[in-house]
Amino acid sequence: LILGNGAAGVSAAEAVRNRNSTCSIVMVTKEQTLPYSRPMLTKAIMGKDERDGLLLHDPGWYEKMNILNLTGMQAEKIDTQERTVVFDDGIRLQYDKCIYALGSECFIPPIEGCRKDQVVAIRRLSDTEKLNTLLPKSRHAVVIGGGVLGLESAWELKKSGLSVTVLEHGNYLMKRQLNEEAGEFLRRLILEKGIDVILNADTVEIEGDGKVTGVRLESGREIPADLVIISAGVRANASLAEEAGARTGRAVMVNACMETTIPGVYACGDCAEYDGINYAIWPQAVEMGKVAGANAAGDSLAYKTVTAALNFYGMDTCLFA
Questions:
Q1: Which residues of 77-98 are buried (b: 16+ CB within 10 A; e: fewer)?
Q2: pTM, whole model, 2 decimals?
Q3: Is the dihedral of CA 149, 164, 146, 319 positive or negative?
């Protein structure tokens, strides 16, 4: 039983099937779609209907691999004694081995007004689809967060014809990947593309009476906006495993075999932490999933930490960091 159908979950399912041709493999997700490429949500799809093009595999692949996808189901409890998972509709699914691949959620800072309808944190396909309904009604966009996903979103919004301002809490952009000199180089490049960038920006309120009209900074400055994207990092979905007794830190702690402290339960991807590391990037999710699936199927693979590298595509530029 695989909880989650992102990159880690799909990688785990494939690794299991490559070692066991007859066992039942069930992948469960609260989303309403087959597995898709989450990193592409901020790349080149705003204002477009690209659902099918984002899928990791077409439906026929899962039929061929005999992998059952159950969508629209929220896991609520892992019963480690009965080896079952209880879902929000009351259904209980049994497992011999459970692979916990529930990923992460966008971190939403405690900003007043952050729950308004015109505020979007892009984490799921449904978020992008919501954004696409807002784009025709929007002229001014503010992106809170100057990391990779925030800057990719800013570029897509600019290409969609909006006026765009990026607010970065730190003193330079992409602070997790770049040094100050490289961050300044990127800022100048972004300014040349007509996107405004404000550094050392502390956002205190998303203004508007029922509808977003602007963003107010701690300095008192107000930025006009009728659309706000929040891209302030992610937090691991670890609570379900923790409630079941798994040891957690920043995420669910695992050993080199991707085993949690719960017998028969493995964790991988954005929700897993190995040797104190939780990069929450695609290559790590794929490799962790491969190791978790292999070992759940009886193999003995050991995970080796991947390089914390990524590609940024935006502003007519490709940056490898």
A1: ebeeeebbbebeeeeebebebb
A2: 0.94
A3: positive
